[in-house]
Structure prediction request, 363 residues.
Amino acid sequence: MKKYSHLIFLIVGGLIIGFLGSYLVELGNPKNMGVCVACFVRDISGALGLHRVAVVQYIRPEVIGFLFGSLFISLFFKEFRIRGGSSPLLRFILGFFVMIGALVFLGCPFRMVLRLANGDLNALTALFGFTFGIYLGVQALKTGFSLGKAPEQNVSNGLIMPTFMIILLIFLLTKPAFIFFSAEGPGSFAAPIAISLIAGLLVGAIGQRTRICMAGGIRDVILIKDFYMLKGYIAVFIAALLTNLALGSFNLGFANQPIAHTDHLWNFLGMALVGLASVLLGGCPLRQIILAGEGNIDSAMTVFGMMAGAAFAHNFSLAATPQGVGTNGKVAVILGFIFIGILVLAHSKSIFIRRVQDAKIGR
Prediction:
């Protein structure tokens, strides 16, 4: 009975998130981008001047809401726990490559579902790639790959990310001259701040309570044949689809989709890189922000790695455009796979050597 009630809550939460993800477009957010963690973090990086692409610079209040929604609800249910120190540099780099893959596709796993719910079939190619990347990640987990357990940390470490988000909110409200805001392009499209912040708080709270995660849902299906978590994202898709149909924004096809391209191979590979890195990190971009709100410093490092990846992607022309993916972006995705492959192989070898040594000691 308890598991059944949890499933109902997960599905209802998914329906709410899916509705918000589509309705925020009606309120002003970019087309097919009511919620996109990768795109929103990219916009924040631009607003802080980490990259200077003028059309994608804005402090997205939804991201601030994600973190504080998770923070407040985890405090209420006494689940806030400051922990971290588990392979922070590797998490930063994996977060970096998550962003590279996402910006080659032009969206995170959340936006992938929202794009599909709006009829963008390019997202279907990306879903296949995302699933393939998760499959590769599961194989790595089966070899014993792990970034390690996160020990308890002191309170000051847990205050870093909430303080950073408060500073961002102050910058958003006061608009100082050293913060950049797009005058045109996707960065100039935004729902009202108060509504965006409230929506972010809701998504953050629901995400914390349900543990909803696209990467985790597909991982569980592959690893243990458990469809529980995936049902939450099916609910997201259904709610977003019905909302788009009701608003008359549904547009089925590959061509002429907003902020998208039809370079199918790189849609596949970009999201495959996201799926692979997300499994190794223990969650997709939205899940990382939710975990950071619970006090997980390792996830905060991942988020900062994503910000660095966004800045790098736009400073060095790695991100895709509606015209397709440039050479720099393709090379970056390939380097991401090579880095992760070396990382997993090195870890597997170290485990093998340790087992051999333990066997010798046992004799």
Remarks:
- DSSP finds 15 helices and no strands in the chain.
- The mean pLDDT is 94.
- The longest helix spans residues 327-362.
- Residues 2-362 form one domain.
